[in-house]
Description:
In chain A, about 25% of the residues lie in helices and about 5% in strands. Chain A has six helices and four strands; from the N terminus they run H-H-H-H-H-E-E-E-H-E. Chain B has five helices and three strands. Chain B has helices at about 10-15, 15-25, 30-40, 50-60, 85-110; strands spanning about 30, 65-70, 80-85. At the A-B interface, helix 2 and helix 4 of A face helix 3 and helix 4 of B.
Amino acid sequence: MDDKLQNFLTNAFAPYGDFPARTDVTRELLANLRDKFADLKEQGMSDAEAYQATINSFGDVSEIMEQVPHAKADASAEPQGHKSIHQVIKDAMKMAKLSTSKFSSSELKESDLSGTDLEDADFSFSSMASSNLERSNLSGAKFRASELRRSSFAGADLTNANFSASDLSDVNFAGANLTGTKFAGSALKGAKFADANLTGTNFSHSDLTGVSFDHQTLEGTMFNSSSLKNATFHGAILHDVNFHHADAKHTSFDGATMDKVTYALLKGAKAKLDGVTVA
Amino acid sequence: MIDKQPITSDLLRGHTDTIILKLLTSGDCYGYEITKLVAEHSSGAYQLHEATMYSSLKRLEHDGHIESYWGDETLGGRRKYYRITATGREQYQSNQRSWEEAKAILSHLL
């Protein structure tokens, strides 16, 4: 169990690389976590329950780092001949096979995490603007309430990933696998989805202003209560797509093909449907 | 869930430094002891996060309001203890007065 608590701390501090007081800080925090864990066990919790409760009440590591001198997480500030902080994180992840890792509430702006195995990793509440996650395995990953504007997920596997309530403006999802991915309540203005797999993707309550779904095949995709102002579905094939309560009045479906149910839903949403083929 | 925080959490968080100074006026404490005492003294209503506490301890130490020393436990890991300094006691008195003033003002306004 000590190993698990130690790992938790190692992961929590991973984004900061090496900093002078690191050994001292983690030693003291580990002692605190051990004490808490032992106390909860004494109160009758199982190992798993006590571990979960201990890490749940840990809080936000960035709060600690405000008080501890450390190098800025900025590649350009690194001395010559040293690995950049992002390279350090990336190497550490690869070595530790950090699938199922927690990076929640992390400061990872402009990180290069391309081609990395990050299955089920948790990046919730993180600041990751302009990051490169191209071709990474992010199936089941969590990015809830994360800041990801201008990041690229091109070619990434995001099967069943969760982006609820995140800022995804101008993000590139070209060629990504978004099967079952949840974007509920996210800002997606300017996002690109060319050649992405959008089967069962959930865009409910999201802002998709001006987004192009041209020539896409949409199967079971959910746009309920989303804003689709000036979005385009030119030449797209729509099957079993949900537009309940969507704002589709200023959305263009020119040359799209769709099933009767989808057509009826869009008609109810007062969408302009001239040039649509019902098949 | 043990980490469920009431809505007042942010309001209380702003007083973490003073809460810790007050605890240390009645004796030296190590990290987990502080979070545990905060939970006990508030009847479980305020769960101080480790990170919030640690950040506050480092700030207080840097400002000379508290000092730390390693304990001499032989069993298990060693604990780092914190002791309040003379300026820490003054700071606590001053924070306490500010709070009383703020409370008086707010009681008229809220």
